[in-house]
Design goal:
Number of strands: 39
Strand content: over 45%
Helix content: under 10%
């Protein structure tokens, strides 16, 4: 199945980070150097996925394609977002004289994508160059060994995204719809996992294009936008409300019942999937129109909005979704997950690989985000450790320095050499008045915006001397 397989290389004493191995549903073509000029362009027979490297400064790669009249041509770059290439790519579609017909920059995150309707049979050229992901004082195109990319090129069916953008825990009755170009097949969207470290991949067999599909930890009913001035209704919560902001000044609306004094949370999924929607969430009371909550950014660098709210009386509320700058179009897609805002904790770790060396121990910094009033102690430890390695559990108090971060220490008590996975959990401290089992929270590491893993890797080459 297409998607990304995460690969780690290791020997007896050390391990690499997880590296993405890109798999596509059609043939792949390697660039042929030199290919900077139009008369040197690498010829590509559609559909195909080309891959190459902008290996030095001021380099430009060029590909030659034959288009047919009436054909919608798609060229989509995969570089920074899935592969973490440190490049801010620019892609152009040009004619045989070098005239620029289309130019794309930031379409899927900072990766470009071109969609072009051919008005006649003709040969055109796709060329790609890049600036550094982090701007420097140098004026000119950037390049280097790590500036690797792939470009999907096709005039056939292409999947841009799949709604809903997230996967409920029990998805048996969920209907998924693929959106894109060129008469998408009506076959059901399929989901597969390549490895334990890989998220679900949504795809349609023999069709170019796929989507990471993060899984929710709970079930949810799926509700679609109604279009026009109508509102959709959620029969129950949790729910996933999905749609497109496809017209100017469009606001999509969802209504659902709430109880008094109960806190609720609505979370948008869009930008993290490489979609352009700059979402705004607004919640109002249906009976009097009063505003209960509004948000347009989670923080400075995350443009998917989130709101928490509570109604003073039981009744019906309306959730409104729009674009902050009135952006709209077929790619302005979203899924909003609405749930009760139960007290919870998010444990995150900035790295996924750790090493116990000759000193016999390693410290793992853990960030703790207490949500919706969670005010209990947490005991944080490592689970599934290999024999000969132990964890020194640490307590996170509701207040003070340990409420937001702790350091978990792992020890090797004897000289051993091994490799293997482990996980980190936080267990809510039990109290005398607690009737239900203590909540357990599992730490995660963000491989990509929409890809989180729970399995960490430990390399041990320790001595007790």
């Amino acid at each position: 199945a297409p998607g990304i397989v995460w690969v780690r290389v290791f020997d007896k004493t050390s391990a690499s980070k997880l590296v993405p191995l890109l798999i596509e549903s059609t043939g792949t073509i390697e660039e042929v150097e030199p290919n900077e000029k139009l008369d040197e362009a690498t010829a590509v027979e559609l559909p195909a996925v080309v891959y190459g490297r902008l290996a030095k400064s001021n380099e430009m790669d060029t590909y030659r394609v034959q288009l047919k009249k009436g054909q919608t041509f798609i060229a989509a770059t995969l570089a920074h977002r899935p592969l973490r290439s440190p490049m801010d790519a620019v892609m152009q579609l040009v004619d045989e004289h070098g005239n620029v017909i289309r130019q794309a920059d930031d379409d899927r995150g900072i990766d470009p994508q071109i969609v072009y309707l051919a008005q006649e049979d003709r040969v055109l050229f796709v060329r790609i160059f890049a600036f550094p992901e982090v701007p420097t004082g140098t004026i000119g195109y950037a390049g280097g060994e790590s500036f690797v990319y792939a470009i999907r090129l096709t005039g056939d069916a292409y999947i841009d995204h799949v709604l809903p953008l997230v996967h409920p825990l029990n998805s048996v009755s969920t209907t998924y719809t693929a959106f894109g170009w060129n008469q998408l097949p009506t076959a059901d969207v399929q989901f597969q996992v390549a490895t334990e470290a890989s998220p679900l991949i949504a795809h349609v067999p023999s069709t170019l294009g796929w989507q990471w599909q993060p899984s929710l930890s709970h079930d949810a009913v799926v509700v679609e936008e109604t279009g026009g001035d109508d509102f959709a209704t959620a029969p129950s919560l949790p729910c996933i409300f999905s749609g497109h902001i496809s017209e100017p000044n469009q606001t999509d609306r969802l209504r659902f019942a709430v109880t008094a004094a109960t806190r609720y949370e609505a979370v948008v999924h869009s930008r993290a999937h490489g979609l352009p929607l700059d979402s705004v969430l607004r919640v109002t009371a249906v009976d009097d129109g009063s505003e209960l909550a509004r948000n347009d950014d989670v923080d400075r660098n995350r443009y998917d909005s989130t709101v928490t709210f509570a109604a003073t009386t039981a009744g019906e509320v309306e959730l409104q979704v729009s674009d902050l700058v009135d952006g709209h179009g077929p790619r302005h897609a979203y899924s909003v997950v609405v749930t009760e805002a139960s007290p919870s904790v998010e444990l995150t770790v900035n790295e996924a690989e750790f090493t116990i060396g000759q000193d016999g121990n390693v410290e793992i910094p853990i960030t703790i985000a207490r949500k919706h009033g969670f005010d209990r102690e947490l005991t944080i430890t490592a689970e599934s450790l290999p024999e000969g390695v132990r964890a020194e559990s640490v307590v996170s108090s509701p207040k003070g320095e340990t409420s937001k971060s702790v350091k978990l220490k792992l020890f090797a008590d004897k000289p051993i050499t091994l490799q293997g996975p482990f996980c980190i959990t936080g267990t809510q401290t039990t109290t005398d008045d607690q009737l239900s089992p203590p909540a357990i929270f599992t730490a995660t590491h963000a491989l990509r915006d929409a890809v989180r893993i729970e399995a960490f890797w430990l390399s041990v080459s320790a001595s007790t001397d």
